[in-house]
Structure formats: structure tokens, C-alpha cells
Design a protein that fits this description.
This protein is α/β, with parallel strands linked by helices. The protein has 17 helices and 12 strands. The longest helix is centred in the middle third of the chain and has 27 residues. About 1% of the residues have low confidence. InterPro entries: Alkyl/aryl-sulf_dimr_sf, Alkyl_sulf_dimr, Bact_Alkyl/Aryl-Sulfatase, Bds1/SdsA1_MBL-fold, Beta-lactamase_class-B_CS, Metallo-B-lactamas, RibonucZ/Hydroxyglut_hydro.
């Protein structure tokens, strides 16, 4: 029986690699968004895409340059700088960091070495990373590597939803390891106008993906640099690597603030710039309204006593939003957002008294096995579910089996096959990466 289960798990895994699912096809098509390019956004504004996971922008002033975000690492930043030097030899006079995540700050040493620039960031720059460090929380590194797919072979990655499948040398950390260069100018006001190389820019504080975020408004060319509070995907209102609550209302309000600038051009924190004014306004309006819809519907359901599981099943984007490519779940996921809104506003307790003191995991597994007629019967049920391609149920049954015998190989192999079966049917790239990485880990543990 056990030999048959192992054979089944291997056969199912092999069969998953057949014809592309619609989700896989859509994700592959999206890769065109990340091609390496130089986009002339406005007369003196250029955005460099496809060098790492995040576009780097350059504004050319009278006697110097302003750089907005710096990419993920030194290697990619050097590539961007080489492209910039094909356009202008002017020195870097200022660098503006839209927030503290390492994919936007990793190239900072490269651009900072091009003179002695002012480096602007929010006063609380890097607060998310600092919070993890002060708590001694390190699991986010492992979960971040899973989410990013950094441990997967290239053939198992398509892209990351809002960026190409890049392999950073610093591994899966969300926050850059090189702290030799730090911001020397801090934005502590809600809004501040600065002048650099004859260029007038407004830096505007806001919350959303992070609490240290800002956007850059260049009124002279009506260009808005959004940072990660806007990119062409349903927003990552909750990252499965883990984070404190990302204030969903504040995120929607930040998009509204950007909309009030009435921009002609929009440079997202990820994905390619949008240079058609009508499309810019449409995208920002729908982005704001879709986030608010999900928040409002979640709160409405919570007030009716619905649990997170029930809310995740019932709160869906209306078709008028869901059909928009820039609101598809390439990177964030509506269901994860709903669960985050519940936990972030009401806490972990779902309201069901049964949940107050759940049975220990192993004890529940023992009782499930008894209901099934014994551990062998439970294992047979998992194998049958796997054969039927009922992958979610397979994974859940395997969790009980693993709890009963953590050293057993068969449940790990079946769960790995189930996760590999789930991955191709999920559009959200971070979830696919997480499934496939955990499957890889389970197969290694089973050997």
C-alpha cells in the first residue's frame, strides 16, 4: 500500500506538468510587463524597467539628476546606471526612496557614489524591518524566500506577479543587508516641497503597503511616482511572508490622494509606467474603489457575525473590477486581504466559542484517524483524494497524517504532490511560489 502511495504521488506530480492552465497562461503573458526597457515618461523623465524587480526612475535637472528608488541590488543598479549614462553624464544630486523595502533600496550604494547626493526618505524609514528585528522575528526570511520563489529552480518560476523571476544575491530577505548608505534627509511633514537641480518636487507622506511610504509629485511634468501603493495588480494588502496589519483604509485613501494630484503620467512601484492620462485616472479610480469595496464588504459581513472562512468565501470583487487586468490577483489576493482585514480590525478570535480553546493538533489528528477507521484508512482517503485530483482535501488530510507521524515519508510526498497540483490553478504568483517551495521542502524531508 505504501509503495503504491509513493508511486501515486510521483505520477500525480508528473501529470501536473501537462498543458498550461488558464492561470498559468495569463501569468506567462504578464511577463511582457517586465521586459528590460527605457521608457521616456516625460520630456526629462525616464524609467528603467526589467533590470531587477523594481523600475528605477531618473529626472534630469539643470545640473544634475534625481533618482527615484534604486532597484534590488548593486548588480542591477549598475546596469541601470550604465543605461542612464547613455542619456546624460550629469551627477546624481538627490535620491528619493519611496519606502524601506530592500527591492527599492538595494541599489542605493551605486547611485549614492555618483557624487554626494541628498537621500530622502520618511522619518520612520525602515520601520517594518526594525519592528521585526526588535521582536527577534526571523521566520519572515524563510517565508519571504518561499513567497518570492528564490529557492525554486528557474523552470518552476514564471514571474512574481509584479516583477520578473529575479534571483537576488542577498537571498529571500525583504530588507537590504547593506546598510552602509542611509538617508540623510528625512520627511517628517505630511507634505514637503524640495528643489533639486532646478526641479521642484513634492514629497507626500502616506501609509499603505508600509507605514514609511511616500509618493513623489513632479508638477512641472505632471508625473506621479507612486511607490508600492500602486502597481498593475490587485494590491498585496497582506503578504504571506507575514507582516503587521497593512491599513487597508489608509491604502485606499493614499490612492485617492494620488488621484487628487490629477496626474498625466504614473510611475508605479512595480510594472511599467502609464503615460496615457485617461488611463492613469481610470486605473487610480478603480484601484481606490476596488480596495474600498473589499474593505466595506468585509466589515459588513463581520458585523453580521461571519467568520474569516465565511467572509473569504463570500467577499468577491465585482466583475467591473475583476475584469481589469491591473486588478487581477497577480501579486495580492482578495481572500488574503479579507482575512487580514478581519484580523487587523477585530483580532484573531473568529467569534465562534469552539475556537476559544481548540484541540491540540495531534489530538485532533488522532480523532480524525479514529473517525476514518484508523490511520491506514485515513492514509487511503488521502491517497484517493490525490488520485481524484482533490488537492486541497489531500493537503488537509495529509496535515493530520503528518501530525500523527512527523517522520513518515508517505504523507509528505502526498502533500507535496497536492501542493504541486494546486499551484498551476492559482494566478497569484506569491502563492504559487509558496506551494512549490513547500512541496520541494517536503520531498527533501521525505528522503
Amino acid at each position: 500500500m505504501k509503495k503504491n502511495i509513493i508511486t501515486l504521488a510521483c505520477c500525480i506530480a508528473a501529470s501536473v506538468s501537462g498543458a498550461d492552465t488558464p492561470e498559468t497562461t495569463l501569468l506567462k503573458k504578464r511577463s511582457a510587463e517586465f521586459r528590460q526597457d527605457v521608457v521616456r515618461v516625460a520630456e526629462n523623465v525616464y524609467t528603467f524597467t526589467g533590470h531587477s524587480v523594481q523600475p528605477v526612475s531618473m529626472i534630469i535637472g539643470e545640473d544634475g539628476l534625481v533618482i527615484v528608488d534604486t532597484g534590488m541590488d548593486v548588480q542591477s543598479a549598475q546596469g541601470v546606471l550604465a543605461e542612464m549614462r547613455k542619456i546624460t553624464p550629469l551627477p546624481v544630486k538627490a535620491i528619493i526612496l519611496t519606502h524601506g523595502h530592500g527591492d527599492h533600496t538595494g541599489g542605493l550604494p551605486v547611485f549614492a557614489s555618483e557624487g554626494s547626493p541628498d537621500i530622502w526618505a520618511r522619518g520612520n524609514f525602515g520601520d517594518e524591518g526594525h519592528a521585526f528585528e526588535s521582536a527577534g522575528l526571523t521566520i519572515t526570511r524563510k517565508r519571504g524566500a518561499r513567497q518570492g520563489g528564490f529557492l525554486l529552480p528557474p523552470e518552476k518560476r514564471i514571474n512574481n506577479g509584479v516583477a520578473q523571476a529575479y534571483y537576488p544575491k542577498r537571498g529571500g530577505a525583504v530588507f537590504g543587508a547593506d546598510k552602509s548608505v542611509q538617508p540623510n534627509k528625512r520627511l517628517t511633514e505630511a507634505r514637503k516641497s524640495i528643489e533639486v537641480a532646478g526641479i521642484q518636487l513634492d514629497l507626500v507622506s502616506l501609509n499603505g503597503e508600509t507605514q514609511d511610504a511616500l509618493y513623489v509629485w513632479y508638477a512641472g511634468q505632471r508625473v506621479l511616482f507612486a511607490g508600492d501603493n500602486f502597481y498593475k495588480s490587485w494590491p498585496n494588502l497582506y503578504p504571506i511572508r507575514g507582516s503587521a496589519y497593512r491599513d487597508v483604509q489608509a491604502w485606499a485613501n493614499s490612492v485617492d490622494m494620488m488621484l487628487q494630484e490629477n496626474p498625466d503620467k504614473l510611475v508605479p512601484g512595480h510594472t511599467r509606467p502609464i503615460t496615457d492620462k485617461a488611463l492613469v485616472i481610470e486605473m487610480l479610480t478603480n484601484y481606490r474603489d476596488a480596495i474600498r469595496f473589499v474593505f466595506d464588504k468585509t466589515i459588513e459581513g463581520m458585523n453580521k457575525g461571519l467568520t474569516p472562512d465565511e467572509l473569504a468565501e463570500t467577499v468577491k470583487l465585482p466583475q467591473k473590477y475583476a475584469e481589469k487586468d491591473y486588478l487581477k490577483e497577480y501579486y495580492g489576493n482578495v481572500e488574503w486581504a479579507v482575512r487580514s482585514i478581519f484580523a487587523g480590525t477585530l483580532g484573531w478570535f473568529d467569534g465562534n466559542p469552539t475556537s476559544l480553546f481548540s484541540l491540540p493538533v495531534k489530538e485532533e489528528a488522532e480523532r480524525m484517524a479514529a473517525l476514518a477507521g484508523g490511520k491506514d484508512k485515513l492514509e487511503q482517503a488521502a491517497a484517493q483524494a490525490l488520485e481524484n485530483k482533490d488537492y486541497q482535501w489531500t493537503a488537509q488530510l495529509c496535515d493530520h497524517l503528518i501530525a500523527l507521524d512527523p517522520a513518515a515519508a508517505q504523507p509528505k510526498l502526498m502533500k507535496a504532490a497536492a501542493l504541486e497540483g494546486l499551484a498551476p490553478n492559482l494566478l497569484t504568483a506569491t502563492g504559487r511560489n509558496y506551494y512549490l517551495t513547500c512541496a520541494q521542502e517536503l520531498r527533501k524531508a521525505a528522503n
